[in-house]
Amino acid sequence: MNNKTIKIELCAEKQRSMEHFYSSVWLPASDADILDAYHKARVINWLNVGADIRIESCPLLPELVGTRLDSPTMDELNFFAKRLSELSENELTALKAVKSKVLTGDEDEVVSMKDLINLTYGLDGVGVYPGIGSDEKLGEFVIDNDMHPDIQAIPDQSLYLISRETIGKLHRENEGGVYANGKYVVAGEYELPEVYDGKTLPNDTGEVERWFAFRLEIAGAPQGGEEAQPTNDWISLPMDLKELSAHGKKYSEKGIEDCVYLGFESAIPQIKEHHFGDMRRIYDLNLLAKMYMEMPPMDKLKFKAVLEAGDISNFEKMLSVAWDIDKYELDTEVENSTEYFKKYIAEHMDKDFDREWLDSLSVYNEGRTLLNRTNATVTSYGVVSYYGCPLYANISKYPKHPILDDSFELIEVCDQKALFTNARVDESELPDGVYKYDLRDGVPFFASIEKHVSVDHAGTVLTREPIDLGGNDCIEFDEETSPNFLGDELTLRDYLTADFTEEETEEQKMEGITQ
């Protein structure tokens, strides 16, 4: 959704301490985005278990920040944000003029969501006059339009004796007028309607499908070079296979896979349109949707955490993760490497040991080392394990993975052969003479190569020679310069000793023969 109007913050208590988890989301938002915000606040099922909600930002009504709301529900806040986003310019001006009907400015006042929502109705009937921003301008308007009977009785040649400002002030006070956004608003004629009764949101029929994994806007394949035309035919996945197949026949296609899609929505933030690709994967997408929707709430968090951990590069691996979700562990109480280290140590302490002593320690580096040793990753949803690895087993139980013998994909990037992995690589694990760079996610190819990418990380590149970024933070890619996957795999050990010059010479000879 566009036109975001309200940013809210969710706050939920941690189970084992007096501290809190926080997350935020801009409204109006889809149910999936709202659920994800709750997940990041570690609220597993937001329909049954709540969290404290406060308005963090509202540019259209800044007074709402810090205002005490009377137990608002997320549905009410989202509906209110949507109402704000749909108001016209004049209606927004009227809203600013009549907001005192609900927002009195009293710090101790508790404002009801019922009144706030109702405040967005009836604004189209409020008189709004542009270009009148003062009593003097209003007085001129009253005189020019013969709006006061006493003034009409005054001869035209005597009108110059009248104070425009006085007339404007009198007229404004008589009809409860307010100046807002450089306009005059007849606020006194506004009465707060009761469209919302505090129970059932207006226009809420309950028939709209709220929960899905993916949505696609589909159309028939274009014919004769014509482009596919946008439709209103959105399908929600998962869907029964017979029903899915019937959509293909609706467009006179052999199957749904022969249609095209014009729009893509995902309830899983880590799965984007480019991961899906095209309609040939529609049945795989439907399978993944079915698996995701059938997961228990905690497994949904775990699935998103594994995807965010950066080990997933393609759709097939996403399906594999869904199949084997029980092979991963997730601790939603852990927010960073320091917390992970302290909890790990506490798990292996004697029961009589004073665990509060751990709170006085600064163990950031130790936490980073432990994460590397256990192959765990801290995500927005908690700390998640590597496939098949427990989070809190004895350290001797974790297999060592010497990076020299790990396999990587061979690629060509920035005029040199390099190694690629979807996972993040800690530079402390690399031997001398190996250089690490991160790739940033983009559509339809990688966006750029950089020294470090925190958000939208799409993979790690290892090279034998440093890449000259030209004094910039990154090198941006286009379709021709994006990394070229060569179809081979090498261990880092073999890569460091490989002679690519002989291979390049053979390629040049073959090119000469074919020319």
Summarize the structure.
This protein has 515 residues and is α+β, with helices and mostly antiparallel strands. Helices cover 30% and strands 19% of the residues.
In words, what does this structure look like?
The chain has 16 helices and 21 strands. It has 515 residues and is an alpha+beta fold. The protein folds into five domains: 6-124, no CATH class; 128-189; 216-294, no CATH class; 296-399, no CATH class; 403-514, no CATH class.
Q: Mean pLDDT, nearest integer?
A: 84
Number of domains: 5
Q: Please state the overall shape, judged from the principal axes of the Cα atoms.
A: globular
- Largest sheet composition: 7 strands, antiparallel
Structure annotation, total helices:
16
Radius of gyration: 31 Å
Sequence-ordered SSE layout with sheet pairings:
Blueprint: E1 6-13, E2 20-27, H1 31-40, E3 52-57, E4 68-69, H2 74-86, H3 89-98, E5 110-111, H4 113-118, E6 128-130, H5 135-144, H6 149-152, H7 164-175, E7 178-180, E8 183-185, E9 214-219, E10 234-237, H8 241-250, E11 260-266, H9 273-276, H10 282-293, H11 297-308, H12 315-323, E12 330-331, H13 337-347, H14 364-374, E13 377-379, E14 382-384, E15 407-413, E16 416-421, E17 435-440, E18 448-450, E19 457-463, E20 474-476, E21 484-491, H15 492-497, H16 500-514
Parallel strand pairs: 4-5
Antiparallel strand pairs: 1-2, 1-3, 6-8, 7-8, 9-10, 9-11, 12-14, 13-14, 15-16, 15-21, 16-19, 17-18, 17-19, 18-20
Helix pairs in contact: 5-7, 10-12, 13-14
